[in-house]
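With this grant's support, the team has encoded backbone shapes as discrete tokens. A representative record is reproduced below.
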Amino acid sequence: MHDPFFPAPLPLVRASLPLAQALHLRTLPLHVHEILPAFCIYTFLGRVVSPLLSPRLFPSVYPKLPTRTRHNWDVHVVSLLQSIVINGLTLWLMYADDDRRQMDWRARVWGYSGATGMVQGFATGYFLWDVLVSAADPGLFGWGAVAHAGSALAVSLLGFRPFVNYYGLNFVLYELSTPFLNIHWFLDKVGMTGSWAQLINGIVLLTTFACSRLLWGTYQSVNLYRDVWRAMQTPAELPVPRWLALAYLASNTVLSVLNVYWFGRMVRTVRARFRKPEGEKRGKGEKRE
């Protein structure tokens, strides 16, 4: 399926060629016009739009937050909007692109689709923004967030060789749980901790996280490892450099380990929001000593 976005402007293609050639990312120039605008849009949303609109939409909450918490709020706004857009594009493409369903293991390893490259380009722009924001303040976001952003950016960029471009789109669906993760965070900040809304959102969050990141993610990782191993063991095919396989699989493994770690933390966090204090656990008819 062709890239439904407009073609990359020739001057931008030429300007990106030296970097693409140096990094051996052959299809990067075809999507640089999607990476750069995505990065700029997310930066604009975080630095201008959210600080401008949030005080008007939440006048009793946002202005009273500490400076670093307001920054965290702006980052969550970007994350929420990005996840909605990228999930919509990915699900549409997986439904509409008949070529993807016809791919064998060779195409899944070395194949390239312009439409998949478009989604990967938008995702790369976001992960580039995410790396810079997370690395700028690891004390606020945590080193796990830095590792996640760096690994996701590496996986996205390697797809422009092209390499396992097919699986790059499948792993984007990790983001299915992200809207609910952000909503959970916002509910805390607007004073709805422990509410029915947060309980329902928490159930949906844990369900989508487990399904998209743990079940779907593990299933796709096993398929990925199998296809790459087969490509490495087939001398007649285009060889897979050992460093490339290790780099991609290492980045993907980091993401998988973080998903398991974060799921455990989320379960504890959601349970803590609704655990009653010891004094409230007594029944109405239970006599206190």
Summary: Residues 10 and 97 are 26 Å apart (CA to CA). Residues 281-289 have pLDDT under 50 and may be disordered.
